[in-house]
Design goal:
4-stranded antiparallel beta sheet; Beta-lactamase Inhibitory Protein, Chain:B, domain 1; 121 residues; 6 strands; two-stranded antiparallel sheet; alpha+beta
């Protein structure tokens, strides 16, 4: 009887873990970003042409032209001496919590990193 209860408990824990893990993979901001967005109402503005499906397709090694074909022009471009060029595809109109979407390019013009997170101010 105890082994039957232990088996059911183990199955339940594994099911919860798999549900949480799959939710984390499906959401761009992850499970924690989803939970933060429930607490702090996001006020995110996205660039014209942006879609989360297209954003998921941006990969390191892509050129600027390839990114523009997928996402359109960014809302803002920020050149940094140490991090490369940042293309911002989202912003908060109220300077508060929002879903941050950013593509980071190397000095040679290829994607180094794709950043997506829920920013809490």
């Amino acid at each position: 009887m105890r082994s039957n209860i232990a088996r059911k408990l183990t199955r339940g824990i594994v099911a919860l873990f798999l549900m949480g893990f799959s939710t984390h993979l499906l959401l761009l901001d992850g499970l924690d970003g989803f939970l933060w967005s429930l607490i702090f109402r996001p006020s995110t503005h996205f660039a014209p042409g942006y879609s989360w499906l297209a954003f998921r397709r941006v990969q390191p090694g892509m050129s600027r032209d390839e990114v523009v074909k997928l996402l359109g022009e960014p809302m803002k471009v920020h050149d940094t001496p140490t991090q490369g060029t940042l293309w911002l595809y989202s912003k908060s109109p109220t300077d508060s919590h929002y879903s941050r979407r950013m593509v980071v390019f190397s000095n040679s013009g290829v994607v180094m990193r794709v950043a997506h997170e829920y920013y809490v101010d």
